[in-house]
Input
Amino acid sequence: MPDFSAMPEVFVSNAELATAVSRETKIGKLRKLGSRLYTRNLTEPPERIVQRNLWPLV
Output
């Protein structure tokens, strides 16, 4: 299983991560922000997370 604590705050899932991401999302350790887009940050509003990480996402 991947170490999501070592991932960036916002990351794009891929086929290699899909099963683990799905499992972690279901148990509340990750949050889905958009299509294949996830975050480890569970406390801040999604808008703030995306705004802060906008350029790395583009």
User: Anything to note?
Assistant: The helical segments are 18-26, 46-52, 54-57. The first strand starts at residue 10 and ends at 12. The chain has one domain: 4-57. The chain has a mean pLDDT of 96.
